[in-house]
Specification:
The chain is α/β, with parallel strands linked by helices. The chain contains 15 helices and 23 strands. α2 packs across α6.
Length: 423
């Protein structure tokens, strides 16, 4: 059986063919994704068109019978079962005007929401963002990106993987049940239809589609974060820093799941991980490049930045410039602009500020230094010389090399590993 392994990410769609359980890296294909072109909220049909365009191109080169998919998390589309219409697609970057009010209302109703769901109610989380599309007296089926694809283009089996379900912000992660009372309190006049959550031992078949008149089974619907972490093959002694459009620090939890307000907890293929997410990364850098610096040599200047500042130097700003960032401060935008205009070491300061976020996060997720190693994963930011040197100089941890040698994204490596577990 040949399979297409595909990651529908925030900035790109990446895929590779698995032939007879072996990856063929020559078949890797990357195309631009919707968010870079269409923003944070847009017609959900765009996702279908871009997904099918990517998949059909791969199919023409090498036919396959299955698709295994992971995608960006904290997104949703609603399907109105009465009008048979789909809402816009809402990404994790979209911020509802009612976010603060809904968050306050939800936490006042259920003081243990964070402990039960494992998820902080950041701006952009579906539990909050659904407010904009939940018309009163309507019946709405809630779809994450993978379920949207099979529901709108093929046949959905109305199931969801817990790695994606948890990202809605309204799942009891230990029991894999929806927080229906919380949802009814926030959306009292809406019938929200939520999918069944796969058990740990179930094969995650979410539906089927047709490519060139051939039926293709679609599996997974995994969260890209967990899939990348699985591909990085972390152990119980590792902390993973995953740097992408957004960034996270993650580590495998003890099974007793001791609660802490300092971090979130997410399902991880039969285990759990503790996580600090929404750390500013690629999205913030791109905004600074395009809106503040407007420097065509931005990335070159970052790559050439040297470590000359004193170790105890504290930048006057951080990259937490979006409301969804974990330590948002509305003064950062102005302070970054002032620094760019006035300081000739701006690019070094920018990188030091970026890296300092991880020192703060590491102290929260591992206050007693129980973990031994750092595993770095993600995109191009981790390969900037300043960033590599910064992490190498952290005395409490050793940098752990990747176990795999394939020059593929960790999400595709993770999908490859997952196909072999479930088959």
């Amino acid at each position: 059986m040949n399979r297409l392994l595909i990651d529908v990410g925030a900035s790109s769609i990446k895929s590779v063919i698995q032939e007879n359980n072996v990856l063929d890296i020559k078949t890797e294909y990357v195309s631009e994704s919707f968010s870079t072109k269409h923003g944070d909220k847009f017609n959900s049909e765009i996702i279908i068109k871009e997904f099918i365009s990517h998949v059909e191109r791969q199919y023409e080169s090498f036919s396959f019978g299955e698709i295994w998919i992971c995608s960006e998390m904290h997104n949703f589309t609603l399907f109105n079962t009465k009008s048979m219409e789909y809402s816009d697609f809402y990404s994790w970057r979209y911020t509802s005007s009612e976010s603060d009010l809904i968050r306050s209302k939800a936490l006042n109703y259920n003081r243990k929401h964070h402990e039960i769901s494992g998820q902080s109610l950041f701006h952009g989380i579906p539990f909050i963002n659904m407010f904009e599309s939940c018309n009163e007296n309507s019946s709405q089926k809630v779809l994450s990106l993978p379920e949207l694809i099979v529901h709108k283009y093929g046949k959905s089996f109305d199931v969801i993987h817990d790695s994606m379900a948890a990202s809605f912000g309204c799942l009891d992660i230990k029991n894999k049940t929806w927080l229906t009372n919380d949802l009814k309190y926030i959306y009292p006049n809406v019938n929200l239809i939520l999918p069944k959550v796969f058990g740990d031992d179930e094969v995650p078949l979410i539906g089927e589609i047709k490519i060139k008149s051939n039926k293709i089974n679609v599996f997974g619907g995994f969260g890209d974060l967990q899939t990348a972490l699985f591909g990085a093959q972390i152990s119980n002694e590792d902390i993973c820093i995953n740097i992408g459009t957004g960034s996270q620090i993650l580590a495998i939890c003890n099974s007793n799941l001791e609660y802490s307000e300092n971090y979130d907890v997410k399902p991880f293929f039969g285990k759990f991980i503790k996580a600090i997410s929404h750390i500013p990364a690629g999205r913030s850098f791109n905004f600074i490049k395009n809106k503040i610096c407007k420097d065509k040599n931005f990335w070159q200047n970052l790559n050439e930045a040297q470590k000359t500042l004193p170790e105890d130097y504290i930048p006057e700003f951080s990259l937490n410039i979006f409301k969804s960032n974990w330590r948002y401060d509305d003064e950062n935008h102005k302070n970054i602009l002032d620094s760019f205009k006035e300081n000739h070491l701006f690019y070094e300061i920018l990188l030091k500020s970026f890296c300092n976020e991880y020192l703060i996060a590491l102290k929260k997720i591992d206050p007693n230094n129980k973990y031994k190693n750092l595993v770095l994963s993600g995109g191009k930011l981790k390969d900037i010389k300043y960033v590599k040197d910064f992490f190498s100089d952290i005395k409490d941890y050793s940098i752990k090399a990747k176990k795999h040698k394939l020059m593929l994204d960790e999400t595709l490596i993770g999908l490859n590993m997952l196909t072999k577990i479930y088959n």
